[in-house]
């Protein structure tokens, strides 16, 4: 029983990361009606930005507080990925907004390839490791729960609450929902549609950056290819949770994380991705 509960804890942690990425997918689709397949690579870029900031901070400062360390890594990653996603939306997606539906999809796949190859060329093809940032582990009834697992779950829950409030209770959220229902009518009512869509892309990128930083903290390694599989799983989570629903995206991510963890524990780690995708 303890082993089963341990795998539930591991799956919840992994699912929380997928859920954060999935929120970005579901926000963009809910407003623009397109799948931003470059979103998984934005997550990967966020992890690499966090890695670079880590290397800079460790070379300049000694004995810096871990909490401050993570906050700086997260904030800079959010700024950089938001800039990337804003540029992608403005340059690649906005000109195709009125075209046939397949064009933005093809462009999104192209941007994913561009980002992946850009990171591969600039950072190299090998895995990039970092030393453990958080090492504390608590034993609760024979179940090991690390502090970094608690951090991931708490951060995901807080960000879900914050973004749910933004979407449902603020003027920005009302503008986003208006653009989702009818962009032409929203424009006639005085809503800046282009600005609202750009902000949505920025919000999605910020969430992906947080997920990338937490992923780097949890696994301690990142590669240029790490955007594809987590991105597809997050997209699956968004679809599973009812794309357009923020809580549904997180629930879908947690479900995929649990399936992946339990399959790896009781069957074979070689086919965990197959098990995760089989629920569709």
Write the layout of secondary structure elements.
Blueprint: H1 2-32, H2 39-60, H3 66-93, H4 102-123, E1 128-129, E2 137-140, E3 143-146, H5 147-169, H6 171-181, H7 183-188, H8 193-219, E4 221-222, H9 228-240, H10 246-266, H11 272-277
Antiparallel strand pairs: 1-4, 2-3
Helix pairs in contact: 1-5, 1-8, 1-9, 1-10, 2-3, 2-4, 2-8, 2-9, 3-8, 5-6, 5-8, 6-8, 9-10
Describe the protein in words.
- The chain is mainly alpha-helical and 280 residues long.
- The chain contains 11 helices and 4 strands; from the N terminus they run ααααβββααααβααα.
- 75% of the residues lie in helices and 4% in strands.
- Helix 1 (2-32) packs parallel to helix 5 (147-169), helix 3 (66-93) packs across helix 8 (193-219) and helix 9 crosses helix 10.
- The chain has helices at residues 2-32, 39-60, 66-93, 102-123, 147-169, 171-181, 183-188, 193-219, 228-240, 246-266, 272-277, and strands at residues 128-129, 137-140, 143-146, 221-222.
- The model has no long low-confidence stretch (mean pLDDT 87).
- The chain has a two-stranded antiparallel ribbon with strand order 1-4. A two-stranded antiparallel sheet has the order 2-3.
- Strand 2 and strand 3 form a beta hairpin.
